[in-house]
Q: What sequence folds into this?
């Protein structure tokens, strides 16, 4: 068996989607040099793609913070230098070949998947860590010896072994999203929690092809404003950190943060396949110090009357992404925007003329849903949202207020639907307090695509606020009204006749009230029409 095997710069292992919708494995070098020919990454899971994207970005940050598009040494001296560099790359439409080849050739020996001293993304010292079979490495299976999947996607050799290409992809994934099940070998060591990507609410911008996607996430200024420290990806370290569960300072440069070694890993190969791996906790830092992270949403963790302290916030997989619009995209004192959102806004500066405000931008979120104390992985999820880039610009502020108001109205409408479902249940003699939950979720399901389409239809450069608002409100009211009718029709004869309920039992105000489905529906309509008043054109009041 060769000591050095499978160089990631030469061997095909990065899964990309082509324009004809086929999936192909390419080398890391080809993924970058031909990014304009690839529609997107196409790994086995969205979370794996997120980890892969960060690796590719780490290379780009490192190279183009040091040299210009001609490959000449030209580090940034001030903020505008970074914006000019970005604009030059964007106008080029592809990544220049020579600067990338020169850099990757220089560090070629650090990209061997198997190497006696410097295996990529691994440390030989991890051999003392917890041993897992290949099924645990594969995120589509995520099995261990005491946790087997009931309906596995793989069987036989496909379950017990991975190709080198598969193992390389899952290596990135496990580093980013591993749960907390691995036990430390040392005593008294702090808990590192889930992998770094598992702790954040991952968000990225998405372009028309992989080149555009990489560029839109290449935030050459921190939060679109400040210079970064010197980029230092993990493969450039003279001596990689190998001690387990090591607390470090949050990196001040994107390449180091994007290649954070949340886990100490070591792959084991047998007969040209990976059959197991070893794992220890790796580098970590408190979430409160993570201000440099550009690909997360945030929440204010400060207590009442205390100064704001923003920490990465995981996505709620039960919530459609558009419902998070105010807390992610709106520029308010109480909101911290993701760095990538700041970057898209910065690129629209009128003096730069780099990014067209009318260009449609897609934002994608992905993440893991963990069990109690992040001890195991339950599920993964992904969602996307598209709208004109100009909504993030200064001219889009008025639209942000309108969009936020409509989302709040949607929340209210969902409440009214829930109240209706609960009242119908009471009318039928059902005392289930959670009866409104499924109805609310059904409303969000029905309204999901119409809201996304309405958001996409907003032209940030136009001031037709009232027209667009009324168009949406009529649609939302219609959807809610139809759902309300459906709930009444499905209620049954018992709910129509009604059920008398004792209220304020034991109090002076004790009384009874008759609950019926028609009465509940009329109450629902009253709230709905106050929320979404009909206009003169619709037969209502202006």
A:
């Amino acid at each position: 068996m060769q000591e050095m095997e499978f160089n990631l710069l030469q061997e095909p292992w990065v899964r990309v989607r082509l324009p004809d919708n086929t999936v192909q494995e390419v080398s890391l070098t080809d993924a970058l040099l031909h990014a304009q020919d690839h529609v997107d990454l196409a790994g086995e899971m969205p979370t794996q793609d997120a980890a892969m994207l960060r690796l590719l970005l780490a290379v780009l940050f490192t190279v183009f913070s040091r040299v210009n598009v001609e490959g000449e040494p030209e580090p940034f001296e001030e903020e505008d230098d970074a914006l000019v560099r970005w604009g030059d790359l964007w106008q080029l439409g592809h990544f220049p070949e020579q600067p990338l080849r020169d850099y990757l050739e220089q560090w070629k020996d650090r990209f061997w998947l198997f190497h006696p001293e410097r295996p990529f993304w691994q440390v030989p010292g991890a051999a003392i860590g917890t041993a897992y079979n290949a099924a645990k490495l594969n995120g589509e299976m995520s099995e261990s010896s005491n946790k087997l999947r009931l309906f596995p996607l793989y069987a036989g050799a496909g379950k017990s072994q991975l190709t080198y290409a598969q193992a390389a992809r899952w290596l990135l994934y496990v580093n980013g999203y591993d749960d907390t099940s691995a036990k430390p070998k040392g005593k008294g060591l702090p808990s590192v929690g889930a992998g770094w990507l598992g702790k954040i609410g991952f968000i990225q911008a998405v372009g028309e092809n992989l080149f555009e996607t990489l560029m839109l996430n290449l935030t050459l200024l921190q939060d679109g404003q400040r210079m970064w420290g010197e980029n230092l990806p993990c493969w450039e370290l003279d001596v990689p950190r190998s001690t387990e569960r090591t607390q470090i300072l949050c990196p001040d440069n994107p390449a180091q943060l994007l290649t954070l070694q949340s886990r100490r890993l070591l792959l084991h190969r047998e007969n040209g396949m990976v059959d197991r791996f070893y794992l220890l906790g790796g580098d970590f830092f408190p979430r409160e110090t993570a201000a440099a992270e550009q690909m997360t949403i945030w929440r204010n963790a400060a207590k009442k009357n205390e100064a704001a302290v923003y920490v990465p916030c995981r996505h709620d997989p039960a919530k459609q992404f558009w419902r998070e619009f105010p807390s992610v995209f709106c520029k308010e004192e109480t909101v911290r925007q993701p760095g990538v959102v700041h970057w898209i806004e910065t690129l629209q500066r009128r003096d730069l003329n780099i990014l067209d405000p009318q260009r449609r931008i897609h934002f994608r979120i992905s993440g893991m849903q963990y069990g109690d104390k992040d001890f195991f992985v339950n599920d993964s999820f992904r969602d996307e949202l598209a709208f004109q880039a100009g909504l993030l610009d200064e001219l889009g502020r008025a639209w942000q207020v309108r969009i936020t108001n409509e989302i709040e109205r949607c929340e209210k409408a969902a409440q009214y639907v829930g109240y209706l479902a609960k009242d119908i249940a009471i009318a039928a003699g059902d005392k289930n307090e959670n009866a409104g939950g499924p109805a609310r979720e059904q409303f969000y399901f029905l309204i999901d695509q119409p809201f996304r389409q309405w958001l996409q239809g907003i032209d940030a450069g136009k001031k037709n606020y009232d027209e667009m608002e009324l168009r949406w409100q009529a649609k939302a009211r219609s959807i809610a009204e139809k759902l309300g009718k459906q709930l009444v029709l499905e209620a049954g004869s018992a709910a129509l006749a009604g059920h008398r309920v004792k209220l304020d039992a034991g109090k002076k105000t004790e009384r009874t009230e008759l609950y019926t489905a028609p009465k509940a529906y009329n109450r629902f309509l009253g709230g709905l029409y106050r929320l979404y008043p009909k206009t003169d054109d619709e037969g209502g009041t202006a």
Notes: The longest strand covers residues 377-388. The chain has two domains: 119-392, 395-538. The longest helix spans residues 397-427.
